Amino acid sequence: MAHAVPVVSDIAFSDLLADPYPIYKRLRDLASAVYLDAARLTLVTRFDDIMTIERDSETFASSNPGSLVNKVMGHTMMRKDGEAHAMERRAIEVSFRPGTIKSHWAAQFEAISDRLISDIESQGEADLFDALAAPMASLALIELLGLKDVSWQTLARWSQALMDGAGNYSGDPEISTRATDAAAGVDAAIDAVLAWHRQNPNPAVLSSMVNAENPMNPEQIRANIKVIIGGGLNEPRDSILSLTLGLLSNPSQLAEVMASRDLWPLAFEEAVRWISPIGMYPRRVTRDAELSGVQLRAGDQIGLCVGAANRDDRRFENPDSFDLLRPKQPHLAFGAGPHFCAGAWVARQMVGRIVVPMLFSRLKNLRLRPDEPARIHGWVFRGPVSLPVAWDV
Amino acid sequence: MPTITFITAGGKEHAVTAEIGRSVMEIALEKSIPGVVAECNGSAACATCHCYFDPAYSEAIGPIGEHESDMLDFTASPRRPESRLSCQVRVTDTLDGMTVCIPAMQ
Ligand code: FES
């Protein structure tokens, strides 16, 4: 008979933020689903269990009537299931197609990356978070969405405010106010360009939304643009930094990838497996179900820890090390199932084919600074928050 | 029900009966055929359900959609004329006897 969800209550929230991986290992070895007091959530941490869940969206739904995401952003496709989700997703698909990326976005991403690297080239040292990764991700997203007259700093601020609002479980009024202000800012920025996109069909997301076969209504546009802003900025930013950090910490692998350009895609996939930018996302249990011997109940909220699954030693050998030459097999950094990351191919191209290769080819003898080590933080969203580097000028 | 034979990259054959109306990807997962990953569960977004389909059946399968063709340019194993995303191919009576080869990498 299946047993109840075990509870772990001796872990401090700060430990989870600082380094979730030893905690994940403990949870994986304990049971398929464990209630972690510090997170106030039942967490699923094994690779196979998450795969099982993501193949059954009737039992494990994304929709969640009471979710904070809905409150802050409106009814986004991220919190819908079945045909309602599929229809909205199809409307934006064309902007994210690999072919569109190659023929249209790649050149724009290259121009942005070139400009940012040229700006710092003569300096000899920088923190790549502020100098490259954050502006790169933000400027690329502005283009991709089709916004105009928005600075990268403004978009980055909106993104953070929306995500903080969506995670504001304690109901902090200051965080809610900032999220509401950001939401209003996004709405105004959409209103400023929507008519133009309607009249000038182009590959940008806003254009796809209004010109699709089943166009989105204004409420859907506003909600979905917010969810893309909230969820589409950190991930490329953090994966630029994780990939750079992984290579700088492993000189022999860096030498391999510099010698053979074809290895860049593998290096990118390994970076997002190693430090998955989205470490956890929620699902709602709709009916009593057994998960590998643990009894889940209808109404349970569960967190799928893909950051843990991607280091599951049942699946990956030496899961904690960065090894781009490890046997290729799927990871869960982009999720799985119908909500598989719509931006996966954008990230692959931008981060793995353009920005990081350009960084290493332009900045000679790029290296970590022993006096100022990189700092990595977070669990729901995880990535380097500081990556100080030096190079020869 | 039509019979479909999957051939893995290692050459092992798995003949299965396939329910009409399901996608070939779903059949492969249901019968635990190794090598079909299907990360996006049929949303035509991941290209990890790539297979090589028997060319004799190309008419019965139907034409490749624009989006599907786009994704096929980014498969881990080389694209060939008989490449399809197995999640976009529906089982019908006319596919009886078809073989589907699974590539070495997804
Ligand atoms: S299952 Fe993802 S493209 Fe077919």
How does this structure look, described?
The complex is a heterodimer of chains A (393) and B (106). Chain A is α+β, with helices and mostly antiparallel strands. Helices cover 53% and strands 11% of the residues of chain A. Chain A contains 16 helices and 13 strands. With 106 residues, chain B is an alpha+beta fold. Chain B contains 3 helices and 5 strands. Chain B has a 5-stranded mixed sheet with strand order 2-1-5-3-4. The model of chain B has no long low-confidence stretch (mean pLDDT 94). The interface between A and B is medium-sized, with 20 and 18 residues.
Provide a compact summary of the structure.
The complex is a heterodimer of chains A (393) and B (106). By secondary structure, chain A is α+β, with helices and mostly antiparallel strands.
Question: How are the SSEs placed, and which strands pair?
Answer:
The complex is a heterodimer of chains A (393) and B (106).
Chain A lengths: L6 E2 L4 H6 L2 H10 L2 E4 L4 E4 L2 H8 L5 E2 L6 H6 L8 H15 L1 H23 L4 E3 H18 L6 H15 L6 H27 L5 H7 L6 H14 L2 H15 L2 H9 L4 H11 L6 E5 L3 E3 L2 E3 L4 E4 L1 H4 L34 H19 L4 E2 L6 E3 L5 E4 L1 E3 L3
Parallel strand pairs in A: 1-2, 3-9
Antiparallel strand pairs in A: 2-3, 4-6, 5-13, 6-9, 7-8, 10-13, 11-12
Helix pairs in contact in A: 5-10, 6-7, 6-16, 7-8, 7-12, 8-9, 8-11, 9-10, 12-14, 12-16, 14-16
Chain B lengths: L2 E5 L5 E5 L6 H7 L19 E4 L4 H4 L4 H7 L10 E3 L12 E4 L5
FE2/S2 (inorganic) cluster binds next to loops of chain B.
Helix tally of chain B equals 3
CATH names the topology of chain B as Ubiquitin-like (UB roll)
Report mean pLDDT of chain A, rounded to a whole number: 94
CATH superfamily of chain B: Beta-grasp domain
Shape of chain A: globular
Largest interface: A-B, 20 and 18 residues
Structural class of chain A: alpha+beta
Enumerate the distinct ligands.
Answer: FE2/S2 (inorganic) cluster
User: Whole-Å distance between the termini of chain A?
Assistant: 66 Å
Order of helices and strands of chain B: EEHEHHEE
Q: In whole angstroms, how far apart are the ends of chain B?
A: 28 Å
The helix tally of chain A amounts to 16
